């Protein structure tokens, strides 16, 4: 039979063990909750990191796509410009060759028209038209009469001069003092008009390409 002191000691020991078990269980529960919380936070951070990486990848993909598209657009524009430029140069060269060959137009009448236009902007009544020996021999009288008819100047004095320094198609209209001079060659006229002609042709070509796209 246990004494009262033995029973009290046993109860105390049991209470201490029970309290120890409760504290141990509480510690385990707290540790488990803490571990679960840490794991959940880690998974959340990992998911956010993956999402951030995915978004960064999407942003980079968009940036690269836009850069490629911009490059393509620039290259297409460059190729279009080069194609139009080649076409313009071909048109210029074809026009120059046609003028040199004097095809499909009446050369004396065209030159007479240019001369009459120039005379309308020149002071005085006496002028010289300097041209190559070949054109002087072939066109002299015909060209002089045509210019007089077109000038509408009854007091016009025009003398044609063969200039050995001029090549075929070279034509210079001057007054007696040579202070006023006008290059009447068709090539010179083409070069003077070409910037505006080029602009108009290029504009039409661009409109045509837009309509066909």
In short:
The protein has 213 residues and is α+β, with helices and mostly antiparallel strands. It has helices at residues 4-101, 107-119, 133-151, 186-212; strands at residues 126-131, 157-162, 171-175, 181-183. A four-stranded mixed sheet has the order 2-1-3-4, covered by helices on one side.
Mean pLDDT level: 82
Shape, principal axes of CA atoms: rod-shaped
Main sheet properties:
4 strands, mixed
Q: CATH top level of the largest domain?
A: Alpha Beta
The CATH superfamily name of the largest domain is ATP synthase, E subunit, C-terminal
Number of contiguous helices = 4
Task: Give the end-to-end Cα distance, rounded to a whole number of Å.
Answer: 112 Å
CATH architecture of the largest domain: 2-Layer Sandwich
Taken in chain order, the helices and strands follow as HHEHEEEH
Strand content: 5-15%
* Whole-number tally of structural domains: 2
Strand order of the largest sheet: 2-1-3-4
Q: Percent helix among the residues?
A: over 70%
Q: Strand tally, please?
A: 4
What is the secondary structure topology, with strand pairs?
Blueprint (H helix, E strand, L loop, with lengths): L3 H98 L5 H13 L6 E6 L1 H19 L5 E6 L8 E5 L5 E3 L2 H27 L1
Parallel strand pairs: 1-2
Antiparallel strand pairs: 1-3, 3-4
Helix pairs in contact: 1-4, 2-3
Q: Describe it for me?
A:
This protein starts with a helix and ends with a helix. The chain is rod-shaped and about 160 Å long. The protein is of the alpha+beta class and 213 residues long. The longest helix is centred in the first third of the chain and has 98 residues. Helix 1 packs antiparallel against helix 4 and helix 2 crosses helix 3. The protein has a four-stranded mixed β-sheet with strand order 2-1-3-4, covered by helices on one side. The protein is built from four helices and four strands; from the N terminus they run H-H-E-H-E-E-E-H. The mean pLDDT is 82. The chain has two domains: 78 residues; 99 residues, hypothetical protein PF0899 fold. The relative contact order is 0.08.
